[in-house]
Amino acid sequence: MKSTLSKSIQFSYCLYLLLASSCQEKFVVPDPIDSINEAYVTLYDDKNFKDRKFTIKYDNNPTDFDKVKSDDGKLGFGDKTSSIRWQIPKGYKCVLYDDSGYRDRYIELLPNNGVYQEIRDLDANDFGDKTSSVKWFRTSPPKITNVGDAYVDLFDDTYFKDRQLTLKYGNSPTNFDNISSDDGKKGFGDKASSVRWQIPKGYKCVLYDDNGYRDRKIELVGNGLLQEIKDLDTKNFGDKTSSAKWLRDSPPKIKDVRDAYVELFDDNNFSDRQLTLKYGNSPTNFDNISSDDGKKGFGDKTSSVRWQIPKGYKCVLYDDNGYRDRKIELVGNGLLQEIKDLNTKNFGDKTSSLKWFEISSNTISGHPEANLLKDINSAYVELYDDNNFGDRQLTIKYNRNISNLKNVKSDNGKKGFGDKTSAVRWKIPIGYKFVLYDDANYKDRKLILIGNGKLQEIRNLNSKNFNDKASSCRWERN
Question: What is the CATH code for 370-477?
Fold first, then answer.
């Protein structure tokens, strides 16, 4: 009787284990991810992904695991992690630290192109029950060209650990004792021990040893890529930074007007919103245009200005729409020039329109020009989306022929210029011409732009019965 009962109990227990096993959730390996918004790291309290778990999404950066809650709502996950699963797309990583505040030893969870990864037992990595804080990072971000994307990350400890202070372009603190780190704690004077920065070519951020941008300094020069100094002691600048300032690097002197630009800023000292205007872009009403960050309206906003214009050209800022009323001239010498505060010129928050000019005693179609072009390889044509050289621009250099303008991108990268041309400028030597056609593949009616070596223009193609008509174009000999 006892034997039969014992066998019955054993059978029931085995059946229970079998049913319990079958009831456990079966893990299915997920598909690869490509968006950082889908990234996650799941930490488990026990080996082989058992017991409590704590899921961390991008960009959740817990500084102290003793104060976080696991997915089931229980407080505290410090020194608990024994196994881990993660999925991170290319260009990012997640770092686990042995101590709170992103300090001490660490282990990096790398992306592997968004494919699912796991570690069943962190003891194998000598990191079982060690994790106390976690932080997400970019690994190799794409090269930047817009200064609005520039930043500097300063860290309180070497190797990018402990408190962090992020400075965006234009934020130039004069006294680090008075500012707060990213976690809200006040005071970062003489704290920076490591630094990361990503700044486009032509700009730099300078760290100073004393308040007010004084004493010794170290320059963080931009090349568009992510750069770093893991230990500022190697530069004899550990725990020295007391102020920081953004500056334009010294670009080379320019001679070609197609390299000319003007940068207008919403605040003094080149801060806040920015509007960049290339040569030939002459807005008649700043209320209708957008700053570089896409926000509409820049009328009566300009408080500081930078420009680089070659000798023989100038850009004029006007107090009223339509190039009217008082004005201030930005005359080119090929070098970078600036006005930090337009109030010193009695022109702060006044600019409502802007126009480019060439400086010469000769005038061609209302646009001055001095030098005759003789080299066909320097010839160019500029097509504009709006009358009076407004809106988008497409620059076509010799010897580029376009069979369908719908398939090309304008100078700002937007696709499609078919049936868009409303104004045109050209500079072509004698013996050559540029022909605009009403249809693709060089067909139908045409408008011929004959070269004479001088800068020529048509402000409104309605005057030629060719407004919004050009669908193809090519270079030809006379």
Answer: 2.60.20.10
